[in-house]
Amino acid sequence: MDWNSFWEGSKDLSTFALAIRAIILYIALIIATRLMGHRQVGILSGHNYLVAAGIVSLAAIRMLNPESSLTSGIVIVFVYAFVNIFLSYLDIKWPKTIDRKPTILMKDGIIHRKNMLDCHVTIDNLLGQLRLKGAHNLSEIDTIVLEPYGKISVIKKPEALPLTRKQMNLPPKMVALPTILIYDGKIDEKNLHAIGLDHEWLMTKLREKGIANPKDIFLAMLESDGTVYISI
């Protein structure tokens, strides 16, 4: 294999060489994404979006064009990553300088038309976002805020909020994350012991469902309300 052509590109590259180039570039993208952290995955700001779009475009060109330089592609990927990390650091230190600020679209039940025009948000856009939030009636909403990452936050009026357990003088409900007990026929011993349960308890629950062997179960989870979910 001509290694110079492999790294710098050539129209005569074999299919095998193209596949290896794609794998190397993919690994570089994974490493760069890990370096940029969770913030990049969520695309929480304008520069995060630009970096993501730039890297995707760059990767597509390098993977499809055998004459493109793999070396320069990898260099650019990591330059993008470190520039994004630097901008994210500045964003944490001086958020109002680097990134956009939240914009109030409604306050005290009144829509701020000027802010909507400044943000290029139409009524249809706004109503669609509200439906996704489960807020269907504008008369029930006190405040709407357009966040820097493009989503909206909704604060309903007090009279439109559902009653809480505290308001009804009920004892607080225990909140816990669902826990995997069995996956692909294997009991998760670590999770079982972490929540203070044992095999006898688990087998009793399985027998109640008419199941004798844990190996017959694809997924079993203990949900937050104490329900045992089982999928065979």
From TrEMBL:
UniProt entry keywords in alphabetical sequence: Cell membrane, Membrane, Transmembrane, Transmembrane helix
Organism: Thermotalea metallivorans
Pfam families reported in the protein's UniProt record: DUF421
Protein name per the record: YetF C-terminal domain-containing protein
Keyword Translocase included in the entry's annotation: no
Transmembrane segments: 13-35, 47-64, 70-90
Domain YetF C-terminal: 96-222
Database matches in InterPro entries: DUF421, UPF0702_alpha/beta_dom_sf
Family: Belongs to the UPF0702 family.
Cellular component annotations (GO), alphabetically ordered: plasma membrane
Location of this chain's protein in the cell: Cell membrane
Membrane topology value: Multi-pass membrane protein
Gene3D superfamilies to which the protein is assigned, alphabetical: bsu07140 like domains
